[in-house]
Design goal:
five-stranded mixed sheet; 9 helices; elongated
Length: 307
Amino acid sequence: MGKPSDSDSDTPRRHHSAVLDEPSRPVARPLDMQRSRLIIIAVLASLCACGQSGAGPVLTVAGTETIVLPRADQPKVHRPTLERLKREAASSGRPLEEVVKRYATRVAATSSPKPTDFEGYDPAVTDPDVVIDGIPYAELADLGAIAESEGISYEEAIDRFGSQSADSRVIDSLAAEFPEEISGVRYVDDQRGLRVGFKGAIPTRAIELARTLPMEVTLIGGKGFSAAELRRAQDTVVSWLRSRPEVATLMAHPDDETGHVTVTVQPKVMPDDAEEFKRGLHLPQPDNPRITVEVTLSAESIAVRPQ
């Protein structure tokens, strides 16, 4: 999607579309951005990638409305200390990750002492308790591992993942304020954009919250289902299948883009007629007709066994 002209740069772009969305990366929604969770977010984003940027054709169903907040009009990330450290790394020839660690260690050494009497404290392995441009050093340290796993530079890892603590607060606010309306939230374009869906019309408050994010945000209204409804539909089907004596193992996957729940079932005895077997399961139908459930059979174990 091209950059808006100067005349309409302050107005979110609205689209009414009858085409289907391209698949995109599921959003990771960290709450406290713990170190291990930050790494998991990056790994999941990489493993689940199955589409192009959210700035391309928007995947929506007939009758939905799309509002695009271009990145050029969103708040800019301001990281003066990290920018200075980047210049220092370039001039000294040292890796940026090393320069950041040296800076954090110096700051920690001159700051007010923090408690060090907790169990497991080891100054040799404990990261400095320092925040740089709003990012805790512990997260900056984890970004080194993410850069290595993603095959990108440390600088790019900071650019792509450094704002997730702040982003998560906005995402949590959206989920808290619209628990029965929000249909899904996911990062797109290698974490550089966000797509947010709603069961009905896009709330004005959601647009206000989205305008605080330093990335392009695509809001899609009129999807016809909420994430809560999708989760309830999945839980109902899974609970039902767990009670069926002919089911050995099962696994369910909800798609918050389409409202489709795919359930893979391993029968205890693989039937000759798969369709007859599936009809015999007598699956409960979702309360919301916009949510659909599909069962596929597998001769292999799915690992999740009925209780």
